[in-house]
Structures are given as C-alpha cells and as structure tokens.
C-alpha cells in the first residue's frame, strides 16, 4: 500500500465524535482522527509489512497514522536511532503502549528498558515499564533471571508521582508477578519493600500490586500453570 493511499484510507475512517471521549481518557487529540484500534488493525493487515511506509506514516504526525506505523513496520528493519526518534514523539499513553509492541521484538529492547527507566520525560519513562509488562506477558521463553533484574529498577522508580509513570511501574510489577509462582513470590517481596517507602506513589503501586498478586484467583491460576 502506498503512503498516499494509507493516509486517504485513514481519513475515510475518521470519526470525530470519538475525540471528546479520547480526550477524557488522557489522549492528546490535537492531531487525532478518532479511529478505533480494531479498524487500524484491519487496515494494517491490508497494508502488509512495509518499513518505508511505517517511517512516512510516523512522520505525518497524525495520531492514528503513528499507531498504524507500529503495526506495519518490519521489526528486523527497525534501528536504534529510529526507536529513539519515535519515543521522543510519544505524547499519549495509548501511543506509548501500542508502539512498545513493536519495540519489544527488536534487539534493543533490554538496553532501552534500562536506559529509559532513568529518563525524565514522562512517556519515555513509561515506555520502559510498559516494555517490561509487555515482555512479561508475551515472551514465554524469557527466563526468571531477566525479570528478577527488573525488580530493583521498579523499586527505584516507584516514587515517581506522575500518573502515567506510576501506573506503568505498577503494571510492570504485576506483570512479573503473574508469570509464575517464583516470580510471584519475588514480586510480592518487592511490593512489600516498596510499601515501606515514604511516597504516595510508592504506597499506591505496592498496595495495588499486593492486592492482585495475593489474590487466590491469581495464585490458583499460577498453581495450575506450574502443574502442567
């Protein structure tokens, strides 16, 4: 699919009545069209994988075009420079959480988690923890040691009071704790350590994680998973 065709199709799918609702959920809608994600996924299937198309879509600055860019890009062709350029453009949590699904299958993912977790920009830092949550959910081959190394990073950044950061830190901690019983135990241990920190954000992150990771339904699921 050519760039001009992709942009035309996006504009044909525009749904301005969705914009107020998106804005209420904290999404920057200044350059948004109001297209639902399932429609973008359908369009991505029709477009196919195309790295050059992805780059042009991103450069358009249109919110949904950037979402589409992450869906059509070729992970093998994504460069570290591209990742750094794209992450600096993040202006909404939904762009962040969608595009990290592309980033998580690149060779730079672990390097970027550690680097971005120390960055000051809200959505760059969120990206680090969204990546941890994504890997915890999707990478079935990743070893426990990978996630144990993330726990001190989570603890270190648990005092960030910014809404989109603290929610991602919490998401990452819960994601690790839901992988298996061993990681559940270690995540709960970290959560209890975080709970003792004199920080409103840290206490919220910890209490929410402890509630879910200690839930009998969560533990029952992990027990069944262990027995398989």
Automatic annotation (TrEMBL):
In terms of InterPro entries, this protein maps to:
ARM-type_fold, DNA_alkylation
- Report the superkingdom from the record: Bacteria
Pfam family of this protein, just one? DNA_alkylation
Task: Read off the CDD domains from this record.
Answer: AlkD_like
Entry-linked PANTHER family: DNA ALKYLATION REPAIR PROTEIN (PTHR41291)
Q: What is this protein called?
A: DNA alkylation repair protein
Lineage of the organism = Bacteria, Candidatus Desantisiibacteriota
């Amino acid at each position: 699919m050519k760039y001009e065709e992709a942009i035309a199709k996006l504009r044909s799918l525009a749904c301005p009545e969705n914009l107020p609702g998106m804005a209420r959920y904290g999404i920057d809608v200044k350059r948004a069209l109001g297209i639902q994600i399932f429609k973008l996924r359908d369009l991505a299937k029709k477009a196919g994988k195309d790295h050059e198309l992805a780059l042009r879509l991103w450069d358009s600055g249109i919110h949904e075009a950037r979402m589409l860019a992450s869906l059509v890009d070729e992970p093998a062709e994504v460069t570290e420079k591209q990742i750094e350029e794209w992450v600096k453009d993040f202006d909404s949590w939904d762009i962040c959480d969608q595009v990290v699904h592309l980033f998580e299958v690149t060779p730079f993912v672990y390097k970027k988690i550690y680097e971005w977790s120390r960055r000051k920009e809200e959505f760059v830092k969120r990206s680090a923890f969204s990546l941890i949550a994504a890997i915890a959910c999707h990478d079935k081959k990743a070893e426990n040691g990978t996630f144990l190394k993330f726990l001190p990073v989570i603890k270190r950044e648990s005092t960030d009071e910014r809404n989109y950061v603290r929610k991602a830190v919490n998401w990452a901690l819960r994601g690790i704790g839901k992988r298996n019983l061993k990681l559940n135990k270690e995540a709960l241990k970290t959560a209890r350590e975080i709970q003792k920190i004199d920080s409103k954000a840290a206490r919220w992150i910890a209490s929410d994680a402890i509630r879910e990771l200690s839930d009998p339904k969560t533990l029952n699921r992990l027990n069944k998973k262990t027995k398989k």
